[in-house]
């Protein structure tokens, strides 16, 4: 079987090379089985009925209409952790830029570059750019996902005292987290105790504006705040007020906007978090692997709108993959159809995520169009795929 894929943004060749001869690149979005995307806005696109998967080569999926995709049975993937090291390194760059006036020192050298006695002058001027070290300081990390864990472990090696907060920390993250990290159960402890605070959580209703006036008022005087996750996690007007009041020493953010760009006490980077060759390569490779695993095996790994379901490679004749609403008696209806045809189900898995669910069934007989039609005719079935 041949599959077609479309790229809405340039995707690293090291990733695209992982597609086998079964795959053909197409410039026609409407005929694609899968779409690879980075930052291109998809909310206003008409999604074709034949589209089965969208893979975001990165973590954030704000540019993709997740609910619309779920309603059409289009599984959306992202690539968590693929750019984690790139972001981790930039977090430390941000800490150092905020702790020591490196930028001011560089600008002074530029402005005095014509001075023949610049070396001597530098010895007098350098005290203006003196700062503090990060060793021995308390770092609070809000969110212990792939990035947060890497930041925490590296900070311990840098001699920092690390506090971590994440009420939903995964088992995998917990295993990878240094045992020397103090895991706190109340985020307010981080606000009260830490010299540096870095945020690594997704943007949701519950996290929007979490770094606001109430949180800032609890913080130590001279706190440094780093935001390499999403700008809307911070109430940036409250942050600017905190800087003016002397509560916040520096705010480091990776998301330029008119509120913070060029403001005193703010270091704004042009969204460089994942902008390394290695991160782009890692994201591309993971995205392609996810698409192939889904199209060829029906497995869902790292989806953001459907549950993760992985049954490996089908060991029987056929595998049926069904996207459907998360309502009662769906499994009974599926098995009833196969039972009426005297077809045995060798293996089955069903999982749900919110309003949607995904079921895979491995059977020991061929599946004709009539069976597919019966499955599609069931109320609340969205999409049926037969994988041979």
Biggest pleated-sheet summary: 7 strands, parallel
How far the N terminus sits from the C terminus, by CA atoms, comes to 9 Å
Mean pLDDT: 96
Shape: elongated
Q: Treating each run of at least 4 consecutive H or I residues as one helix, how many helices?
A: 13
Structural class computed from helices and strand pairing:
alpha/beta
- Whole-number radius of gyration? 25 Å
Share of residues in strands: 15-25%
* Main sheet: strand order: 8-7-6-9-10-11-12
Helical coverage, percent range: 25-40%
Q: In oligomeric terms, what are we looking at?
A: single chain
Which key features would you list for this structure?
7-stranded parallel β-sheet, alpha/beta, about 400 residues
Explain the overall architecture.
By secondary structure, the protein is α/β, with parallel strands linked by helices. Helices cover 32% and strands 21% of the residues. It contains 13 helices and 16 strands. The strands form 3 sheets. It has a 7-stranded parallel beta sheet with strand order 8-7-6-9-10-11-12, with helices on both faces. Strands 2-1-3-4-5 form a 5-stranded parallel beta sheet. Strands 14-15-13-16 form a 4-stranded antiparallel beta sheet, with helices on both faces. Helix 6 links the parallel strand 6 and strand 7. The longest helix is centred in the last third of the chain and has 21 residues.
């Amino acid at each position: 079987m041949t599959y077609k894929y479309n790229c809405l943004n340039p995707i690293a060749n090291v990733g695209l090379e992982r597609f086998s001869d079964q795959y053909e690149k197409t410039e026609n979005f409407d005929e694609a089985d899968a779409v690879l995307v980075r930052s291109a806005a998809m909310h206003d696109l008409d999604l074709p009925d034949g589209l089965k998967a969208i893979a975001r080569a990165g973590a954030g999926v704000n540019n993709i209409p997740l609910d619309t995709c779920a309603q059409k049975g289009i599984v959306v993937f992202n690539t968590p952790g693929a750019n984690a090291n790139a972001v981790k390194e930039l977090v430390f760059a941000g800490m150092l830029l905020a702790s020591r006036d490196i930028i001011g020192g560089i600008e002074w050298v530029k402005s005095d570059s014509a001075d023949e006695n610049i070396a001597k002058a530098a010895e007098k001027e350098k005290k203006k750019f003196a700062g503090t070290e990060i060793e021995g300081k308390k770092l609070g990390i809000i969110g212990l996902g792939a990035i947060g864990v890497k930041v925490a472990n590296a900070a311990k090696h840098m001699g920092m005292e690390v506090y971590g907060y994440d009420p939903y920390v995964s088992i995998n993250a917990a295993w990878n987290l240094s045992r020397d990290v103090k895991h706190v159960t109340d985020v307010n402890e981080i606000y009260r105790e830490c010299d540096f605070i870095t945020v690594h959580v997704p943007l949701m209703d519950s996290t929007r504006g979490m770094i606001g006036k109430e949180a800032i008022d609890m913080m130590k005087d001279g706190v440094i705040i780093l935001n390499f996750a999403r700008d809307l996690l911070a109430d940036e007007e409250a942050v600017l007020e905190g800087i003016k009041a002397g509560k916040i020493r520096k705010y480091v953010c990776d998301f330029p906007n008119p509120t913070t760009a060029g403001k005193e006490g703010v270091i704004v980077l042009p969204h460089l978090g994942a902008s390394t060759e290695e991160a782009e390569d890692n994201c591309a490779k993971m995205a392609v692997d996810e698409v192939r695993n889904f199209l060829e095996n029906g497995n869902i790994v790292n989806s953001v709108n459907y549950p993760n379901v992985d049954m490996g490679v089908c060991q029987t004749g056929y595998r049926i993959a069904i996207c459907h609403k998360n309502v009662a008696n769906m499994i009974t209806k599926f098995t009833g159809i196969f039972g009426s045809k005297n077809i045995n189900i060798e293996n089955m898995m069903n999982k749900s995520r919110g309003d949607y669910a995904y079921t895979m069934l491995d059977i020991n007989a061929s599946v004709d169009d009539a069976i597919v039609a019966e499955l599609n005719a069931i109320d609340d079935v969205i999409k049926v795929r037969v994988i041979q």
